[in-house]
Amino acid sequence: MPFAEILDKYQYRVNQELENVFRAILEDAGKLGGVYVDYYRNLRDFVMRGGKRLRPVSFIMAYKGVGGKDYESIIKASPSIELLHNSTLIHDDIIDEDHIRRGGPTFHIVYTDWFEQKFSGRDSIRFGEAMAILGGDNLFELGLSILTKANFSSNFLLQAIDIYRETYKKICEGQILDILWENRAEVTEEEYFDMISMKTGSLFVGSPLIGCTLGNGSPRQFELLKKYSLLMAQAFQVQDDVLGTFGLEEETGKPTDSDIRQGKRTLMVIKAIEMSSAQDKKILLKTLGNKKAPRDDVEHVKKIIRQTGALDYVKEKASNLAKPAIGEILKESEIFTAEAIEFFSGLAEFVLNRKL
Amino acid sequence: MPFAEILDKYQYRVNQELENVFRAILEDAGKLGGVYVDYYRNLRDFVMRGGKRLRPVSFIMAYKGVGGKDYESIIKASPSIELLHNSTLIHDDIIDEDHIRRGGPTFHIVYTDWFEQKFSGRDSIRFGEAMAILGGDNLFELGLSILTKANFSSNFLLQAIDIYRETYKKICEGQILDILWENRAEVTEEEYFDMISMKTGSLFVGSPLIGCTLGNGSPRQFELLKKYSLLMAQAFQVQDDVLGTFGLEEETGKPTDSDIRQGKRTLMVIKAIEMSSAQDKKILLKTLGNKKAPRDDVEHVKKIIRQTGALDYVKEKASNLAKPAIGEILKESEIFTAEAIEFFSGLAEFVLNRKL
After folding, report:
1. B35 close contact with A: CB closer than 8 A
2. Quick one: residue A115, left, alpha or beta (phi over 0 = left, psi -120 to 50 = alpha)?
3. What pLDDT was estimated at residue B291?
């Protein structure tokens, strides 16, 4: 089965399981009171609004790829990964003051709007952020709950939980660098890769490694999946930065000026600062992180990123990461199932060519 | 050994173990970079600044009380409980915009101040809150890490992790009611107890139940510890509300006007609204939740709470909760160790008489 079909098939199963998880949570919430029904319905709507489910599908594929046979149980466990991911998205959106995610309001804006309508505005953003801090907390523990109760041996589950937790730790630590660097003029390419390896890489690496662990994969399978995933994740993030600034808002579901106004030190920005004239560099540093920068200045920054060749540089970089990623997984392709090889090599190509 | 000595002894051991946990974390952080050393040192300082360690000591006591014998392992696991607690404190302090905790700055204010000094103020509160969202996230996973790696059988650990997680879930859900009700005129006594049972009760109940689970306690031991802890926790929270508004700031380590300005629906406030004249009720509702209320109005609210008899009512209520709590644990005192009986009955008295 070609990559696109594998992704479609398991995306569908993951979404079904996510719906099941929220159905059960909403039933429980009904006993507690209407507030909780609204709350968990809002969390459900946020999670179900979109998302490619690349991480939970990688989790399933790694399990099956190393020879795991309990398909029903692994699919049932797969929402854990997606919920961890969404937990960190909700907290990140507060931190970055982002208002749009997947074409709809971010979670704190859902509750900011709700509060504004109900209590005519006083402190509405604070309220929204408070609900989103808790919402992120709850999604993480909900994911943990699924993993803890999954139908695998206790020993495997404890190992899986430890990777799940360590993944969350690294994402938070990566996020710390990301926000600290918004106030630093110069960040090196090496530092950028260290940061995204934590912030984005952790979960792209953690997902297949948890699957591999539950499927009783060998140390060599574990190692190759790890190497592959880190390279693939780096390609993903480099490309994600490109789409964030140069993609179409209708497709990516988020505003294309957000990273620039936030002052994110993306690889494009790092290279543009490095490769620009003294005058352009001034414009870059003045606009980056200025939340009220006029539209023209933001466009000027984009122009500089193009003209200096920074955009071409990072596009090539992404491609130069995806290829060795595929190399890692093909190195000993006989130790994985054919389906897993098809999926993981297809995924590395997909992250380069995607539009959203 | 009398209660005070038991508490002292294990408080000391818990603190030692917390220091060990942070020593290891800081060593790891040193390999990652100076940013992380500062970050985890700030988290360490926040956790070590104070706190009575009632929850981790209850965790140890329940384990020993049901006949658990691996003292070293249970003490080594005890920081998990305290870290979960501190995780929720850090997030709560952001939500409540509290600046003082245990006589020092709250965690988001630590980083607000740091940012202000370093970058002269722009966006400093946002930065502080961002770091504190992540700080709370990291403490929760750090506690989970200790539990996951603890020296008990995998089956027991999975059960323990599930209670640990469910505890966190309930705390978040309780916090949701707490902030929602800041904007509601009338909250009933029953609703108040539902809310504090989640927000405060969860961890006071969860801590001994995790200990009991790891010590292979019987269903009856589990049940009695659960009943006891819920009543004791309610007494604790009612008393905590009293101290929050009528205690001495030097002793409680937090400002006594914070709950009133925040509009917290404490039992005192609920009863005062219920028992006050139409005119006083107006003053109450005007001042509660008004962050800029003049000092005189706040004092007036306190006067109304005293004069209506609301203060006496809640003091008696706390006492009327602590006594049946002790009753539960004494019901079948022979199924617990003498030390545990001494500790848990002493604890229920302690929560009434404490000044901080």
Report:
1. yes
2. alpha
3. 87
Does the domain at residues A3-347 carry the CATH identifier 3.40.50.150?
no
Q: What is the pLDDT of residues B191-223, one digit of tens each?
A: 999 999 999 999 999 999 999 999 999 999 999
pLDDT at B122: 61
Tokens (6 digits) for B14: 């818990």
- Give chain B positions within 8 Å (CB) of A36: 173, 176
In terms of Cα–Cα distance, which of B86, B80, B61 is closest to B10? Answer: B61
SS3 A263: coil
CA dihedral sign of residues B59, B62, B63, B64: positive
Percent of chain A with pLDDT over 90: 83
Cβ neighbours around A120 below 10 Å, total: 8
The interface residues of chain A toward chain B in range 157-216, judged by CB-CB distance below 8 A, are 157-158, 161-162, 165-166, 168-169, 172-173, 175-177, 179-180, 183
Record: contact A161-B161, CB cut-off 8 A: yes
A138 in contact with chain B, both atoms CB, cutoff 8 A: yes
Interface of B with A in 78-97 (CB under 8 A): 91, 94-95, 97
Distance CA A268, CA A272 (A): 6
Nearest Cα residue to B156 out of B85, B73, B224: B73
CB contact under 8 A, A141 and B169: yes
Which tens digit of pLDDT belongs to each residue from A60-102?
999 999 999 999 999 999 999 999 999 999 999 999 999 999 8
> Which tens digits make up the pLDDT trace of A36-69?
999 999 999 999 998 899 999 999 999 999 999 9
Give A32's contacts in chain B (Cβ within 8 Å): 173
ipTM value, please give it.
0.95
Q: pTM for the full model?
A: 0.95
Closest CA of chain B from A267, distance in Å: 20
Contact across the interface for A32 and B173, Cβ inside 8 Å: yes
B155 touches chain A (CB under 8 A): yes
Give alpha helix (H) positions in chain A. 3-32, 34-48, 54-65, 71-77, 79-95, 107-119, 124-148, 154-181, 189-196, 202-214, 219-246, 249-252, 258-262, 267-275, 278-287, 295-307, 310-331, 338-353
Picking from A97, A112, A165, A292 by the largest number of B CB atoms within 10 A of its own CB, the best residue to mutate is A165
Q: Which of A148-152, A285-289, B233-237 has the lowest mean pLDDT?
A: A285-289
State whether residue B187 is helix, strand or coil.
coil
Residues 6+ positions from A8 with CB-CB distance below 8 Å: none
Round to whole Å and give the CA distance between B194 and A246. 50
What residues does each domain of chain A span? 3-347
Residue A163 tokens, joined: 């990777």
Chain B environment of A136 (Cβ under 8 Å): 133, 137
φ/ψ of A105, rounded to 5, equals -65, 145
The full length of chain B comes to 356
- pLDDT, residue A49, reads 92
Q: Where are the alpha helices (DSSP H) in B33-153?
A: 34-48, 54-65, 71-77, 79-95, 107-119, 124-148
> What residues contact A193, with CB distance under 8 A and at least 6 apart?
A234
What class has domain B3-230+340-348? Answer: mainly alpha
